[in-house]
């Protein structure tokens, strides 16, 4: 079974002492565990339960409720594309199609090399600058197919984009 | 009415998150005055009541009245929860308040906590707010160093700890009691009310929950005085509001205007009308939970009651401009998908109702609908409007009915005969 590093355990301990109840540290401790493990799967839930001294089922109840805890591996670069109203009417679907074509995967999938994954997300509160997406913790706004290519190239300079025809470039 | 900047007054300065720069522009002056003049806490609550400051998250409950519900001599600790779970589609004002003027929020938090007798404040921030978290945490650290937060603030004996609590992706946690359950480490299921959080809130203790914008307005009330603040707005809604405009506006962005400014003025005079010379099809006036308006329905004052009288809501003040090229059935599908996705699952009418509407909307948007589908939506919407623990179901029901009724012809055009 995996374990959390000493420093993460110490941070978890400090969080449990900071809140009026130790259970209140659940969301931040799950965030810490996800940062270390890359996801919150069954085993990660067990580890968190053990570190926090609470039942595994309580951890599971919380971890499965929130969309930001990943139960399957995501890419090193996790593209979270807003699909809500303001972004949609500004062209979010075109952006998503372009990303899928460039990476050769569907939404909610990961590239074979594990570098990229794509997820459709709801409103991320930057509606005046849409279409928008988060790549890991970084916000990108005013997206265009060219900007997407730039973001992919910056993340993976070796990646060849030329052979993957994009609708955006055909026109 | 021209723009009147209070909470967005210092948005133009890039160095505002730096405490020294913020203080050179007046940050923490009211907080220092409260402490040095030993202003009685009940006077501050009265001032906020006089100011007619209303909850800016969408519900519009008078802030001072809410604070007044908290028992003065509670043997239990009391808490403040600042609602920074901004997730109402179309809304982006709290992100700006957190990123551009974090010290204004912290000053508001300090004054609010002093007025209500609170020593621990939580800022519940949505999990996706990575940059706002960094900026606000840095601001808290700076304020502590300056002796404006923390233990024995400025030798007053008053202690205040401010803690950022990050959510993890759930729109429902913007509902105040779901927020409390999420803060306590559970899933974000709303609680039945009563008891109200002012009596039984976080960790079973009396709790004040206010939106970021509401709390950011507090230092301005103390600076101007409640009466002057109230005069800016209308009879029942004091002060200004940060209105957001997105979609096909010529100049999308945030505009701080006196409460009661007309929606038409916001869209045309401030946001420049529709971009690229296109015609206007409709406006969603206050976040996606508010019923849609047609172009001839925009001459309404932006205040809570007047918007209700017009059959819609002020909501979070976030207007989405839809130009003539927009397909309303597609917007309807996107909107209902959101509520189906975000329904927490606790109440059957909402969980099933939102999903049913989404499936029907998707069918229609894909060209497979029938006229009877529209009647089905109108038929089932009342079943999850007001029949559940929280208003999430209602937040789809009312706009769904408005879209179907106002744009019936457009829906019918998509259908095979």
TrEMBL record, chain A:
<feature type="region of interest" description="Disordered">
    <location>
        <begin position="148"/>
        <end position="171"/>
    </location>
</feature>
<dbReference type="InterPro" id="IPR036249">
    <property type="entry name" value="Thioredoxin-like_sf"/>
</dbReference>
<keyword id="KW-0001">2Fe-2S</keyword>
<keyword id="KW-0411">Iron-sulfur</keyword>
<dbReference type="Pfam" id="PF01257">
    <property type="entry name" value="2Fe-2S_thioredx"/>
</dbReference>
<dbReference type="GO" id="GO:0046872">
    <property type="term" value="F:metal ion binding"/>
</dbReference>
<feature type="binding site">
    <location>
        <position position="127"/>
    </location>
    <ligand>
        <name>[2Fe-2S] cluster</name>
    </ligand>
</feature>
<feature type="binding site">
    <location>
        <position position="82"/>
    </location>
    <ligand>
        <name>[2Fe-2S] cluster</name>
    </ligand>
</feature>
<keyword id="KW-0408">Iron</keyword>
<dbReference type="InterPro" id="IPR002023">
    <property type="entry name" value="NuoE-like"/>
</dbReference>
<dbReference type="GO" id="GO:0051537">
    <property type="term" value="F:2 iron, 2 sulfur cluster binding"/>
</dbReference>
<keyword id="KW-0479">Metal-binding</keyword>
<comment type="similarity">
    <text>Belongs to the complex I 24 kDa subunit family.</text>
</comment>
<feature type="binding site">
    <location>
        <position position="87"/>
    </location>
    <ligand>
        <name>[2Fe-2S] cluster</name>
    </ligand>
</feature>
<dbReference type="InterPro" id="IPR042128">
    <property type="entry name" value="NuoE_dom"/>
</dbReference>
<feature type="binding site">
    <location>
        <position position="123"/>
    </location>
    <ligand>
        <name>[2Fe-2S] cluster</name>
    </ligand>
</feature>
<dbReference type="GO" id="GO:0003954">
    <property type="term" value="F:NADH dehydrogenase activity"/>
</dbReference>
<dbReference type="InterPro" id="IPR041921">
    <property type="entry name" value="NuoE_N"/>
</dbReference>
<protein>
    <submittedName>
        <fullName>NAD(P)H-dependent oxidoreductase subunit E</fullName>
    </submittedName>
</protein>
TrEMBL record, chain B:
<keyword id="KW-0520">NAD</keyword>
<dbReference type="InterPro" id="IPR054765">
    <property type="entry name" value="SLBB_dom"/>
</dbReference>
<comment type="function">
    <text>NDH-1 shuttles electrons from NADH, via FMN and iron-sulfur (Fe-S) centers, to quinones in the respiratory chain.</text>
</comment>
<comment type="similarity">
    <text>Belongs to the complex I 51 kDa subunit family.</text>
</comment>
<protein>
    <recommendedName>
        <fullName>NADH-quinone oxidoreductase subunit F</fullName>
        <ecNumber>7.1.1.-</ecNumber>
    </recommendedName>
</protein>
<dbReference type="InterPro" id="IPR011538">
    <property type="entry name" value="Nuo51_FMN-bd"/>
</dbReference>
<dbReference type="InterPro" id="IPR050837">
    <property type="entry name" value="ComplexI_51kDa_subunit"/>
</dbReference>
<dbReference type="InterPro" id="IPR037207">
    <property type="entry name" value="Nuop51_4Fe4S-bd_sf"/>
</dbReference>
<dbReference type="InterPro" id="IPR011537">
    <property type="entry name" value="NADH-UbQ_OxRdtase_suF"/>
</dbReference>
<dbReference type="Pfam" id="PF01512">
    <property type="entry name" value="Complex1_51K"/>
</dbReference>
<dbReference type="InterPro" id="IPR037225">
    <property type="entry name" value="Nuo51_FMN-bd_sf"/>
</dbReference>
<dbReference type="GO" id="GO:0045333">
    <property type="term" value="P:cellular respiration"/>
</dbReference>
<dbReference type="GO" id="GO:0051287">
    <property type="term" value="F:NAD binding"/>
</dbReference>
<dbReference type="GO" id="GO:0051539">
    <property type="term" value="F:4 iron, 4 sulfur cluster binding"/>
</dbReference>
<keyword id="KW-0411">Iron-sulfur</keyword>
<keyword id="KW-0285">Flavoprotein</keyword>
<dbReference type="InterPro" id="IPR019575">
    <property type="entry name" value="Nuop51_4Fe4S-bd"/>
</dbReference>
<dbReference type="Pfam" id="PF22461">
    <property type="entry name" value="SLBB_2"/>
</dbReference>
<keyword id="KW-0004">4Fe-4S</keyword>
<keyword id="KW-0874">Quinone</keyword>
<dbReference type="GO" id="GO:0008137">
    <property type="term" value="F:NADH dehydrogenase (ubiquinone) activity"/>
</dbReference>
<keyword id="KW-1278">Translocase</keyword>
């Amino acid at each position: 079974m995996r374990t959390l590093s000493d420093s993460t355990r110490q941070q978890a301990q400090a969080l449990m002492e900071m809140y009026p109840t130790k259970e209140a540290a659940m969301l931040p401790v799950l965030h810490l565990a996800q940062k270390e493990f890359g996801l919150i799967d069954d085993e990660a839930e067990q580890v968190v339960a053990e570190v926090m001294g609470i039942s595994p089922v309580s951890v599971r109840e919380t971890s499965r409720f929130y969309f930001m805890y990943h139960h399957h591996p995501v890419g090193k670069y996790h593209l979270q594309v807003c699909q809500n109203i303001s972004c949609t009417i500004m062209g979010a679907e075109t952006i998503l199609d372009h990303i899928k074509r460039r990476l050769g995967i569907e939404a909610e999938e990961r590239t074979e090399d594990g570098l990229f994954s794509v997820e459709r997300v709801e409103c991320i509160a930057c509606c005046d600058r849409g279409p928008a997406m988060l790549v890991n913790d970084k916000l990108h706004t005013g997206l265009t197919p060219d900007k997407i290519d730039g973001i992919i190239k910056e993340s993976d300079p070796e990646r060849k984009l030329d052979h993957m025809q994009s609708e955006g470039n055909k026109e | 009415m021209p723009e009147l900047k209070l909470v967005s007054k210092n948005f133009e300065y890039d160095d505002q998150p730096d405490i020294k720069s913020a203080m050179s522009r007046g940050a923490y002056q009211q907080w220092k005055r409260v402490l040095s003049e030993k202003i009685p806490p009940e006077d501050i609550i009265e001032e906020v009541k006089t100011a007619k400051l209303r909850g800016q998250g969408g519900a519009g409950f008078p802030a001072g009245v809410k604070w007044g519900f908290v028992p003065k001599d509670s043997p239990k600790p009391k808490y403040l929860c600042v609602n920074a779970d901004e997730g109402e589609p179309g809304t982006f004002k709290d992100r700006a308040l957190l990123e551009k003027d974090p010290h204004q929020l912290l000053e508001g938090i300090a004054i609010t906590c002093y007025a209500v007798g609170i020593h621990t404040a939580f800022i519940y921030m949505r999990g996706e707010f990575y940059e706002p978290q960094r900026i606000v945490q840095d601001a808290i650290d700076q304020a502590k160093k300056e002796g404006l937060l923390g233990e024995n603030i400025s030798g007053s004996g008053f202690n205040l700890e401010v803690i950022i609590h990050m959510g993890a992706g759930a729109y429902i946690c913007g509902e105040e009691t779901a927020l409390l359950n999420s803060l306590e480490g559970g899933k974000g299921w709303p609680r039945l009310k009563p008891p109200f959080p002012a009596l039984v809130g976080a960790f079973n203790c009396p709790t004040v929950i206010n939106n970021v914008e509401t709390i950011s307005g507090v230092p301005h009330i103390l600076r101007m005085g409640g009466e002057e603040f109230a005069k800016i707005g209308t009879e029942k809604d004091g002060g200004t509001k940060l209105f957001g405009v997105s979609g096909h506006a010529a100049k999308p962005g945030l505009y701080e205007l006196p409460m009661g400014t007309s929606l038409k003025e916001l869209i045309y005079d401030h946001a420049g009308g529709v971009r690229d010379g296109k015609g206007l099809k409709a406006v969603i006036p206050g976040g996606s939970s508010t019923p849609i308006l047609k172009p001839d329905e925009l001459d309404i004052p932006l205040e809570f009651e007047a918007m209700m009288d017009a059959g819609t809501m002020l909501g979070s003040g976030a207007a989405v401009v839809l130009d003539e090229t927009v397909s309303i059935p597609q917007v309807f599908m996107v909107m209902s998908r959101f509520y189906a996705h975000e329904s927490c699952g606790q109440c059957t009418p909402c969980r099933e109702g939102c999903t049913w509407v989404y499936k029907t909307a998707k069918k229609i948007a894909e060209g497979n609908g029938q006229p009877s589908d529209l009647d089905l939506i109108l038929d089932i919407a009342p079943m999850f409007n007001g029949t559940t623990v929280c208003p999430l179901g209602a937040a789809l029901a009312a706009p769904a009915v408005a879209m179907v009724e106002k744009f019936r012809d457009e829906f019918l055009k998509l259908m095979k005969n």
